[in-house]
Amino acid sequence: MKNLVVLSGAGISAESGLRTFRDADGLWEGHNVTEVASLDGFTRNPSLVLDFYNQRRRQLLEVSPNEAHIIIASLEQYFGVTVITQNVDDLHERAGSTNVIHLHGELFKARSLKDETLVYEWKEDILIGTRNEYGHQLRPHIVWFGEEVPEMERGIKAVMQADILLIIGTSLQVYPAAGLIDYAVNAQQLFYVDRTPAATHHFNKPIEVIAEKASSGMQLLYNRLLQL
Question: Which of 142, 163, 196 is the endpoint of a domain?
Answer without folding.
Answer: 142
